[in-house]
Every structure is written in structure tokens, then in C-alpha cells.
Design goal:
Elements lengths: L4 H9 E3 L7 E4 L3 E5 H14 L8 E5 L10 H16 L2 E3 L6 H8 L6 E4 L13 E4 L2 H8 L4 E4 L2 E8 L8 H12 L7 E6 L8 H10 L7 E3 L4 H9 L19 E6 L6 E3 L7 E3 L10 E4 L7 H11 L9 E4 L4 H9 L3 H6 L3 E2 L19 E4 L15 E4 L2 H10 L59 E8 L6 H4 L4 H4 L5 H4 L11 H8 L2 E4 L12 H9 L1 E6 L4 H9 L3 E5 L4 H4 L5 E4 L10 E5 L5 E4 L4 H9 L2 H8 L1
Parallel strand pairs: 3-4, 3-6, 4-5, 6-7, 9-10, 9-12, 10-11, 15-16, 15-18, 16-17, 18-19, 20-21, 21-22, 22-23
Antiparallel strand pairs: 1-2, 2-8, 13-14, 20-24, 23-26, 24-25, 25-26
The protein binds alpha-methylisocitric acid and iron/sulfur cluster (SF4).
Alpha-methylisocitric acid binds next to helix 2.
């Protein structure tokens, strides 16, 4: 039987395990990326491992999430990242150069290479055939130290594309359609591999939009073949030498097949507050729009913004509809400027923002109270925009630009002809000189730390028995934005776990931190897909700092599950999901942690009630990590 692209790449990078879905495999990692919000922790952890220089082919440290530099904390963090990169042999991308995923796609990602990043949208690089995965900062730190990355062998889903996008439909509508069909839990444990005659009709930016937002399916990653379109893209980026053809064998075997006819797609929109609440744009006709934001790692490419400029040219947005545009990189910005495409944006009334994540992570640009905000981003979780009752809708850049002019949702059938599909110019301007490449000898570089950078604390080993109360009960699809909110104020504390811990679950239950302090330890009870969304390990580190010993849930999202293991919090699965209803906040539990075995079941005693059976899907190694009190302890114990 022939092989899928995914299996080909995994086979080449396999250092341990068998390629049987669900079994743990260890992968050699060629490249890593970090960004500032998760990167300070990742780099502190890399320093704690103590090997000096990165051992990957390439590691890049980007600063793109929080570039506001309000007060000393944030600029101090940036300086730390710049100096630690120079000392450790990593490339540094300064604030404002661009969004990590857009920059990595344009400048560094390679077909066939493995990449892990401390950001859940790292799969963007799958648009050119890289096997790129989001991971917790500690996993990235270990990969930088030359250690393998361990994941359960994913199932491979073939997304068979036929037909061709027409009219206003875009790459974004392909992934919105998949989210509509499969939901935010539909991709857990799977790689989505795109194939079929429709692939050749999609541009690299469209492909990257699809793989980027595959993260919202909960997928391990998503990947496109590296074909003629990829060759052309890399050549225009001045990277012809980085191209290798990568296609699945004609008789490749897949675990599942999904069919999408691109010709049938029309503009879609994800409604508040989940990326899978997808309907047709026309179904919302008549709804007033207060704000439109175009950008983020999903839709900030040259083609997205050139189309935006073409749509806006010679027209203005209504006075009560604000428009913000954040280009994905300085390269995109330079191309727009050179072709006179900034002027139509400005004349239309748009605010052109810095080349960063910006409003996507709540760094300004929050909607008005209850305001309707149409965004080209990938996540519309409640409160993520910075306005708790903001109503965020997710669409393609072309749909967003058109709706910005309308000031309300309208039927795309009334929009007239769609702008032409854009290809990159022949002479794409390089921004390579803007990256800081490390000196050959970093030994003289002094690492500069500000007072906001607090050293990592030591965690105790897992006790034999845990006696603790359920101090919070939450429902299904809890995101890491619920656990640890984003936004300027809180993100500035990413290097300071004691300080940031004070915000754990603050938007869900303002009394949670006080209860944790009162009891000193506790357990969280959750539903399905607990911890979906971002890779921020602070959503595990913060609870661990406060004394959370275990989470008991119906099911877990992949990256958060790994972060819980990395920081020694027990991820327990209810053997009978119906027990969720029987357990209440405040219940007194006795967990016989010492009796746990990989995949085994234990009984938790509940004071005054019937015991509850919990199981786990931990490997032997993962259980040992938790028993050691986390991965750093486990690594130290080994050496
Ligand atoms: C996000 O989109 O939620 C983020 C902010 O990029 C996160 C990383 C973080 O929290 O720093 C992600 O996607 O992993
Ligand atoms: Fe940045 Fe938003 Fe992309 Fe996360 S999803 S990397 S915050 S642009």
C-alpha cells in the first residue's frame, strides 16, 4: 500500500514508537518557532535544561503577540528574548517584523521538514508541506535541546478536494465548511491531509489559511502537498533551493476520507462564540456591523490585502463601522506600499496597524459593548476580543472587506463580481536583513533579564493520595482563553507565573483564585474537549502554581493535555461521563494517585457519596513525568 505525505514525513523523522494510530511516537524536530507570549517561558526552560546552544537545524524567536511596550515589563521581555536568542544560536525577529506564522511561511518553513512551535497555529506551515505542530513551551524547549517530540501517532484523514473556488468563496470558506461539518472536537488525534484535483487550484496563501485554522478542529496538524504552486511560491520568496516535491502515493492509505467540492462553496461565517458555529453569510443579511478587523495569522497575506485594497478602492466605510487592517509581515506591507495599495485602505477609512497579532489576542481594537465585530481571524471565543459581550464573527478577508463597506451583513449575490484572484509579483522584496541571525560564537553575549522575569519554581513529586475539593465545575469546550484570558494587561505577565496565576479562570468565576488560596489545593471538573484552543502552557502552569492537583474531565484537547502532563497535573477521564452530573463543586475527593497505571482505572472516594471511577490515556512515560512533578523534574532525575 502507498503512503500519505504525513506517513512519509513521520517515517523519516521517527526516533521511537510504532506508526499505529494512538500509540506514542517520538519525532526528530528540524525546526522550532517561539513567540513572545509563550516564548519567555520556553526560553527560561531551555536555559534550565542547560545545554547552551540550540540543536535544531533552525530555531526562530518571534516577537509579535504583545508589542505594546506599555511599562517596563513588555520591553524587558523583548530584550531578554533578543539576547537569549543571540546567545543560544537562534534567529530573532524583532517586534513589528510580522506575525510568526506568516513570517515562517515566507522565510523559513520547508516542505517535508518537521516544525514545532509554542503556538497552536504553527500548522500554517503545512500550507507548503511542512509537518508543523503547535506544542507547549516546554516541549519546544526540549526540541531546541535536540530531544524528540512525543505525540500519539495520529490518524490521517484525506480531504479530497474537487472543483474550483468561484466568486467570493476563498480558502477560509474551505476550513469553515470543515468546521461546520466536524466541529471544534472533530479533529482530535488526526492529521488533515489535502489531496485531489482541487489542490492545484488553491494558492499557497489559501492553503496556509486552511492549515492555520485546522487548529480549530483540534487536529494534530494539517498538510498540503508540495507541488508546482509550492515551487513557484518558494522561488518568488527567493527560496527555490528549499523546495522538494512531496506528494502522496497514488494508492496511499488513509484512515478516513472527506470530500469537498470547492465549486459548491460560498462565503461562510462562524458566529459567536465558537469557530464551528458556521452559517452562510447571506443568512445573516440585515445584521448591523460595528467593527471589521482584517489580519491575523489566518488572513494577512499579500493576496488577502491586495484583494482588500481592490474592494475598498474609491469607496469609504460607513462612519459607524470601524475598519482595522494588520498586514502579516513587513514583506506584505512593502509589496502593498510599492503597488500603491496602502492609499485605498487609508482613503476608505481603515486604520492600518502594525504587522502583529494585534486585536486577535486582545491587544487593542476591542469592540464596543455588545458590538458586532467581523474578523478574518481564527478564534471568536467569548471575551477574547477584550469585550466580554462583544459578538465576534469570523470570515475571509474578501468577505470582511466587502462587509466593511456595507456596514451590515448582506447577501454576497448582491456584491457584484469578486476581485481577481491574486498571485505574487515576480520580484518579491526580501526582508531577510531584518532578522537578527545569531553570532557564530554567542559566549560573549550577556542575557538581559528585567524584574518581570521570575525564575521557574520547583514542583513537588505527585503524592500517593490526593485529598482535595472540586473547586470549579465547568462545561464542554472550555478554552485556554477561559482558563487564562489574553489581552494586554494579563499577557504582560507571561514571564511571571505567580503574578499571572491571579487571573486563572478570572472571567469564568471571579472567586476561583480566592478559593484555591483558602484551600491550598483543589481539583477542576470539566466536560468534553477541555483546554481547546491556544497552546499557552500558562493555562497549566498557573493552576499548578495555585495548587490544582488534577483535572477530571470527559475529554481533553491535545496540546493542553500535554501541558498538564509537562507540569505534573493529573489529567483524569471520567470512566462514565454521566458521573459528571453527580459531582458538584465543593465535593471532597480522595484520589489514590499512587495506584494509577497507564490506561488503568481507579476509584475516587467522594465524601458522603458514591465513588467515581476515572481512567486515563497516559503512557508509562507520561505517568512517570507526572509522578516526578513534571517534565523538568523528570529530565533532571534522568541526568
Ligand atoms: C492564540 O491565538 O490564542 C495565541 C495567543 O496565539 C496562543 C498562544 C499564546 O497564548 O501565547 C496560541 O494559539 O497558542
Ligand atoms: Fe497571533 Fe491570533 Fe495567530 Fe494567535 S491566532 S498567532 S494571536 S494572529
Amino acid at each position: 500500500m502507498g503512503k500519505s505525505i504525513t506517513r512519509k514525513i513521520i517515517e523519516k523523522h521517527l526516533v521511537s514508537g510504532e506508526m499505529i494510530p494512538g500509540r506514542e511516537i517520538g519525532l526528530r524536530i528540524d525546526q522550532t518557532l517561539t513567540q513572545d507570549a509563550t516564548g519567555t517561558m520556553a526560553w527560561l526552560q531551555f536555559e534550565a535544561i542547560g545545554i547552551g546552544k540550540v540543536r535544531t537545524d533552525l530555531s526562530v524567536s518571534y516577537v509579535d503577540h504583545n508589542t505594546l511596550q506599555m511599562g517596563f515589563r513588555n520591553p524587558d521581555d523583548h530584550r531578554y528574548l533578543r539576547t537569549v536568542a543571540a546567545k543560544s544560536g537562534a534567529v530573532f525577529s524583532a517586534p513589528g517584523t510580522g506575525i510568526c506564522h506568516q513570517l515562517h511561511l515566507e522565510n523559513f518553513a520547508k516542505p517535508g521538514a518537521t516544525l514545532i512551535g509554542s503556538d497552536s497555529h504553527t500548522p500554517t506551515a503545512g500550507g507548503i508541506g511542512a509537518m508543523a505542530m503547535g506544542a507547549g513551551g516546554l516541549s519546544v524547549a526540549l526540541a531546541m535541546a535536540g530531544q524528540p517530540y512525543f505525540i500519539p501517532m495520529p490518524k490521517v484523514v484525506k480531504v479530497h478536494l474537487t472543483g474550483e473556488l468561484t466568486g467570493w468563496a476563498q480558502g477560509k470558506d474551505v476550513i469553515l465548511e470543515l468546521l461546520r461539518r466536524l466541529t471544534v472536537k472533530g479533529g482530535v488525534g488526526k492529521v488533515f491531509e489535502y489531496a485531489g484535483p482541487g489542490v492545484a487550484t488553491l494558492s499557497v496563501p489559501d492553503r496556509a489559511t486552511v492549515t492555520n485554522m485546522g487548529a480549530e478542529l483540534g487536529a494534530t496538524t494539517s498538510i498540503f502537498p508540495a507541488d508546482e504552486k509550492t515551487r513557484d511560491f518558494l522561488a518568488r520568496m527567493g527560496r527555490a533551493a528549499d523546495f522538494t516535491e512531496l506528494v502522496a502515493d497514488a494508492d496511499a492509505e488513509y484512515d478516513e476520507i472527506i470530500e469537498i467540492n470547492l465549486s459548491e462553496l460560498e462565503p461562510l461565517v462562524a458566529q459567536p462564540h465558537m469557530p464551528d458555529r458556521v452559517c452562510k453569510v447571506k443568512d445573516l443579511a440585515g445584521k448591523k456591523i460595528d467593527q471589521v478587523a482584517i489580519g491575523s495569522c489566518t488572513n494577512s497575506s499579500y493576496s488577502d490585502l491586495k484583494n482588500t485594497a481592490q474592494i475598498l478602492r474609491g469607496r469609504q466605510t460607513p462612519a459607524d463601522t470601524d475598519l482595522m487592517i494588520s498586514p502579516g509581515s513587513k514583506q506584505v506591507m512593502k509589496m502593498l506600499a510599492r503597488e500603491g495599495l496602502i492609499e485605498p485602505l487609508l482613503d476608505a477609512g481603515a486604520r492600518v496597524l502594525e504587522c502583529t497579532c494585534g486585536p486577535c489576542i486582545g491587544m487593542g481594537g476591542s469592540p464596543t459593548s455588545g458590538g458586532v465585530s467581523v474578523r478574518t481571524f481564527n478564534r471568536n471565543f467569548e471575551g477574547r476580543s477584550g469585550t466580554l459581550d462583544g459578538q465576534v464573527y469570523l470570515v475571509s478577508a474578501q468577505t470582511a472587506a466587502r462587509l466593511a463597506l456595507e456596514g451590515e451583513f448582506t447577501d454576497p449575490a448582491t456584491w457584484g463580481p469578486a476581485p481577481e484572484r491574486v498571485s505574487l509579483p515576480d520580484d518579491v522584496p526580501s526582508i531577510r536583513d531584518l532578522f537578527l541571525f545569531p553570532p557564530a560564537d554567542g559566549s560573549k553575549v550577556e542575557i538581559k533579564r528585567g524584574p518581570n522575569i521570575v525564575a521557574l519554581e520547583d514542583f513537588d513529586a505527585l503524592p500517593e493520595t490526593i485529598e482535595a475539593k472540586v473547586l470549579l465545575k465547568v462545561g464542554d469546550d472550555i478554552t485556554t482563553d477561559h482558563i487564562l484570558p489574553a489581552g494586554a494587561e494579563i499577557t504582560a505577565l507571561r514571564s511571571n507565573i505567580p503574578a499571572i496565576s491571579q487571573y486563572i479562570f478570572s472571567r469564568v468565576d471571579a472567586g476561583f483564585v480566592a478559593r484555591m488560596k483558602e484551600h491550598g489545593k483543589g481539583v477542576i471538573l470539566g466536560g468534553e474537549n477541555y483546554g481547546q484552543g491556544s497552546s499557552r502552557e500558562h493555562a497549566a502552569l498557573g493552576p499548578r502554581h495555585l495548587g490544582v492537583k488534577a483535572v477530571i474531565v470527559k475529554s481533553l484537547a491535545r496540546i493542553h493535555r500535554a501541558n498538564l502532563v509537562n507540569f505534573g497535573i493529573l489529567p483524569l477521564l471520567l470512566a462514565d461521563p454521566a458521573d459528571y452530573d453527580r459531582l458538584a463543586e465543593g465535593a471532597d475527593l480522595t484520589i489514590p494517585a499512587g495506584a494509577m497505571t497507564p490506561g488503568g482505572t481507579i476509584e475516587i472516594a467522594v465524601a458522603g457519596g458514591k465513588p467515581v471511577a476515572v481512567t486515563n490515556d497516559l503512557t508509562k512515560k507520561e505517568l512517570e513525568i507526572i509522578q516526578a512533578g513534571g517534565l523538568l523534574n523528570a529530565v533532571r532525575n534522568e541526568s
